Each structure stands twice: as C-alpha cells, then as structure tokens.
Amino acid sequence: MDIAVLFSNLVGLFLLIGVGFLAVRLGILPAQAAKPMSALLMKITVPATIVSSMIRPFDPAFVRQGLTILAVGTALFGLFSALSLGLSRLFRVPQGRRGMWSCCATYCNNGFMGFPVALAVLGEEGLALTVILAIPFNLVVYSVGAKMVCMDVAAEGSAPAISWKKAIFSVINLATMIGVVLYVTQLPVPEAILTPVRHLSNVTTPLSMIIIGINLSQGSMADVVRDRDAFTASGVRLLLFPLLAWAVMCCIPGLDSMVMAATLLNLSMPSLAASALMGEEYGGCVQLASRTIFLSSLLCIVTIPLISLLL
C-alpha cells in the first residue's frame, strides 16, 4: 500500500472531522444536530453506499474474496470477543464498567469510519469487501456485544433481553442482502433509481466525518485523560487487536492481499460509535463508552497509518 496516498486520504477525511468540530464550536450547528444526522447516515446514506458498491459486473474472483473475508471476519470477531473479556480482568477494569470496556475494545466503528476510509483508500472493491465483512460484524455486535454491555447491570438484577430481530434485520444488513442479490443475479437497475442511490452514496463520507467532528466537540479532554479504562480500551482497540489480526492473517496461506488490506484497515478503526447507544439501551456505562469513542477517534489519526505499514 502506498503510504503517501493513504496518509493523504486520511488527512482529507480528518479535515472533514475538523469541519464538524468547528461548526459546533463556532455556533454554526447545535451539538444536537448529530442525532438526526446520524439517523440519516445509518438508515439512508450508508445503505445507499452498500447497495451502490455491490452494483458491479459479476467476477468469480470477487466471490471467492467475499467468502474468504466472511470466514476471516467471523473468526476474528469471535476471537476478539472472547479475549476482551479476559483482558478486562487483566487491566483490572471495575465491575459496572467491564462489559462496556469489552465492547469498546472489541468492536470498531465500521459504519461511520470503516466504509468511508475503505472507499477512500482501497476504492470500490475494498468498500464492497468491507460491506461483506460487516455481515458477521453486525450479527456479533448486536448479540454478543449487547450481551457484554448487559454485564454492567447483571449484578443488580436480570439483564435486558437481547433482540435477535434487531441484530438480523437491521437496515444495514437488509441493504447488504439487497446488494448481494443484485450482484449475484446481475439484475439491471433503472437509471432513474441508480442515480439518486449514487448521489446518496456520495454523501456518506463527508456526512460521517462531520458527525464524528460534532461528537468530538462535546468531549472534555480533562475528563478523558483521567480515565485509565478509556486509555486501555483504546489501546486494545487501535493497536493490540489489529496487530493480532495481522498475525493471524499472516498464518493463512495464500490469503488475498485485498482481503487482508480491507480486513486490517477496518479492524484499525476506533471504538464503535453505537456502543454509547447500546449502553443507554442495555444499562451499560455510557460515560466510559463516550470517553473511549472520543479518545480512540483522536488517537486513530496516528495509529491507522502505523497499522497500514504492515500491508
């Protein structure tokens, strides 16, 4: 991978984060704008990006790549989920925070950052593979990840029920299934439909970066730097797990370079933005989630280029 190209693309993306940050600090946008903008992103523009990326000529080689990244992603997400619970004890994360710590350390911000970065750095093929990687990711996040978050309140009584329906029938998963069907069947999409889908897809990258900037503008660095658990969770998320993923993939003979690049780049993203929302829904430590998202989103400016040197 050309590091100069990678760094240039990342700088451009993080300048967009600065736009969102300054828009709030200068009073151009209210901080509350992040919530409706996030709904627009996750329920409209990201699904449009997914469908658009899968409207491509059929290629048996891409099918093999897709099946490979599906298997690799499933194995890695399962491995990380198991390891994070042990690491939370190793880092002496207190009860009441341990589940959220594990969730933030394990799961990456694939929707807000993974898709835009994959598109900017790896192009349409890399984005399409990242979309396929999101299939096991979403299933694990809203099942195992939600169960992790529930650990923080399990000692106080029965944990909230986990919705398998929500995990399987999310808007992003449905968009992925539509994209896969369109790719496999090669059904022609009328230009009247394809054009607005592509226009919406083009909005995803700037919108996602601006939302991250808006969220960062609300963080207090003084509170973050005093939170040891936010630092350890960010370190595991940004460095330990990507390095472990790289080591595991290096042991797989004949692994396609694009599969490895898309997987490693996606696993280098900061903590899952939805972890704070999951904390509110399932009773996890929202404070730790917000601080870890804030810190890991800042530190990834340095760690993503470092991890990319491995490719």
Number of strands: 0
Radius of gyration: 19 Å
Order of helical and strand elements:
HHHHHHHHHHHHH
The best one-word shape is globular
Biggest β-sheet strands, sense, barrel: none
β-sheet strand percentage: under 5%
Distance between the termini: 6 Å
Mean pLDDT: 86
Parts with pLDDT < 50 across at least 5 consecutive residues:
none
Helix/strand/pairing class, anyone?
mainly alpha
Q: Number of helix segments?
A: 13
Helix content: over 70%
Produce a short descriptive summary:
Helix content is 79%, strand content 0%. It has helices at 3-25, 34-54, 60-90, 98-106, 110-154, 164-168, 171-185, 191-216, 221-225, 228-250, 257-267, 274-282, 286-308.
Protein architecture, described:
With 311 residues, the protein is an all-alpha fold. The protein contains 13 helices and no strands. It starts with a helix and ends with a helix. The model has no long low-confidence stretch (mean pLDDT 86).
How are the elements arranged and paired?
Layout: H1 3-25, H2 34-54, H3 60-90, H4 98-106, H5 110-154, H6 164-168, H7 171-185, H8 191-216, H9 221-225, H10 228-250, H11 257-267, H12 274-282, H13 286-308
Helix pairs in contact: 1-5, 1-8, 2-5, 2-7, 2-8, 3-4, 3-5, 3-11, 4-5, 4-10, 5-8, 5-11, 5-12, 10-11, 10-13, 12-13
